[in-house]
Amino acid sequence: PEMNSLLVVSDETEPYNPLTYYLAEAWASLRTDEFLIKEDPSLKTLWKFMLGKDYLNSRWTAQLHRTERIHIIYLAVNPAMQHHGISALLMNEAIAYAHEHHLMISLETHNEHNVALYQHFGFKLYGVLEKHFDLKQYCMIREVQ
C-alpha cells in the first residue's frame, strides 16, 4: 500500500531455470487473475485478458538480434501520484544505466497514449502488433546512445 511506483527491468542475464520460471509464471498468473476478478466480478475483464495473453509477452524482441539490451517489463505509478515526475525519475535511472553500459532498451505498451511518453525519452516505435481484436501492442526501442 505504501508503494507509489514500480519499474521492473530485465537484462536477461539470469540463468534460465525451468522450475523457477514456471513456478513464477503460475504465481503471477494466479495473482493477476485474482486482481482482475476482484476489480470486475462480471469476469469480462478476465476473459479479455485471457484472449489477449498472446500480447503480454516480449517475443518480438528476438527480431532485434541484440543481446546487449535491457527490457522494461513493467512501469506503473499509483494514479494518485501521477504527474509528479515519478515515471521520469524511474525512466531516467533506466536510461542512465543503459547509457553507462552501452545497452539498447526495449519495451512494449498497450496504451497508445504511452507512446508519446516513451518517445519523449528517446524511444522509437519499432512496430505495432495486432491480432484478433482491438488490443494493440506498441513495441518500442531506444538505441544505444
Model description:
With about 140 residues, the chain is α+β, with helices and mostly antiparallel strands. The protein contains 4 helices and 5 strands. Strands 1-2-3-5-4 form a 5-stranded mixed beta sheet, with helices on one face. It starts with a strand and ends with a strand.
The number of E-state strands comes to 5
Q: List the secondary-structure elements in sequence, H or E.
A: EHHEHEHEE
Strand content: 15-25%
Radius of gyration based on Cα positions: 16 Å
Shape: globular
Question: How much helicity do the residues have?
Answer: 25-40%
CA distance, first residue to last residue: 36 Å
Give a short account of the largest sheet: 5 strands, mixed
Record keyword descriptors for this entry.
4 helices, 145 residues, single chain, alpha+beta, globular
